[in-house]
């Protein structure tokens, strides 16, 4: 008979009060040492759940807690313990391989190559200028020039009203890399650019969604 079954039998035969039986089980299986780990786990999990912007890296804080809690409960399982550990190892190996494949696919494709070409083209442009794009931080970090976002309500008038268009050189940039624009939205930008601005560069591998225009 397993330890858990023995404990339940002892609780059933010796304890008439259900609450007393509950606390006996709690004393046996939930040590005081893991209270802090449970608080740690639920604190970071709560933060990850309720934060409006979510990314995988926000869960890094609870990985050590998950490992400790999992190890504690696995150590309590005497039967099939080796099978459980083997299954966990297989899942971890599959997860690592899949993660490497996903990362490689993300950063070794046409979108990435075209993004690098766009950045290289911008780095060779002379003088001081403004960059308008969907991801200003990405370009600002590489180009070291002033940058801004496309307006939320995208049309010819809102783009013309953007600050800086009459003060100096402005480059309008779009790349599919790390883009969150819907198809209709980037097609709309392309039409506005073709009608009102000068084409400076387009990626030969995918010119429809990787280009630079200027005023």
Q: How would you describe this structure to a colleague?
A:
By secondary structure, the chain is an alpha/beta fold. It folds into two domains: about 5-105, no CATH class; about 110-215. The protein is built from nine helices and five strands; from the N terminus they run ααααααβαβαβαββ. The protein has helices at about 5-15, 20-30, 35-50, 65-75, 80-105, 110-125, 135-145, 155-160, 185-195, and strands spanning about 130-135, 145-150, 170-175, 200, 210-215. A five-stranded mixed beta sheet has the order 2-1-3-5-4, with helices on both faces. It starts with a helix and ends with a strand. The model is unreliable at about 20-25 (pLDDT under 50).
List the helices and strands and how they pair.
Blueprint: H1 3-14, H2 18-29, H3 35-50, H4 63-76, H5 81-107, H6 110-123, E1 130-133, H7 136-143, E2 146-149, H8 156-160, E3 170-174, H9 183-196, E4 198-202, E5 211-214
Parallel strand pairs: 1-2, 1-3
Antiparallel strand pairs: 3-5, 4-5
Helix pairs in contact: 1-2, 3-4
Mean model confidence by pLDDT: 78
* Largest pleated sheet: 5 strands, mixed
Strand content: 5-15%
The share of residues in helices is 55-70%
* Order of the strands making up the biggest sheet: 2-1-3-5-4
Q: H/E series, N to C?
A: HHHHHHEHEHEHEE
Offer a quick outline of the entry.
Helices cover 57% and strands 10% of the residues.
List keywords for this structure.
215 residues, alpha/beta, 2 domains, five-stranded mixed beta sheet, 57% helix, 10% strand
């Amino acid at each position: 008979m397993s330890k858990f079954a023995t404990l339940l039998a002892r609780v059933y035969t010796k304890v008439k009060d259900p609450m007393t039986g509950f606390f006996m089980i709690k004393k046996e299986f939930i040590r005081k040492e893991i209270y802090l780990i449970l608080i740690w786990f639920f604190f970071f999990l709560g933060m990850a759940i309720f934060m409006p912007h979510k990314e995988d890296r926000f869960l890094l804080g609870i990985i050590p807690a998950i490992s400790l809690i999992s190890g504690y409960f696995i150590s309590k399982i005497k039967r099939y313990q080796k099978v459980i550990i083997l299954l966990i190892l297989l899942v971890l190996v599959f997860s690592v391989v899949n993660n490497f494949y996903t990362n490689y696919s993300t950063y070794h494709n046409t979108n990435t190559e075209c993004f690098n070409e766009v950045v290289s083209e911008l780095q060779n442009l002379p003088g001081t200028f403004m960059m308008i794009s969907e991801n200003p931080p990405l370009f600002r970090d590489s180009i070291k020039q002033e940058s801004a976002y496309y307006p939320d309500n995208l049309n010819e008038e809102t783009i013309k009203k953007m600050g800086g268009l009459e003060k100096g050189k402005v480059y309008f940039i779009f790349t599919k890399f790390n883009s969150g624009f819907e198809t209709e939205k980037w097609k709309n930008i392309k039409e506005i650019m073709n009608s009102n601005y000068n084409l400076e560069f387009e990626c030969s591998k995918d010119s429809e969604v990787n280009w630079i225009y200027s005023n």
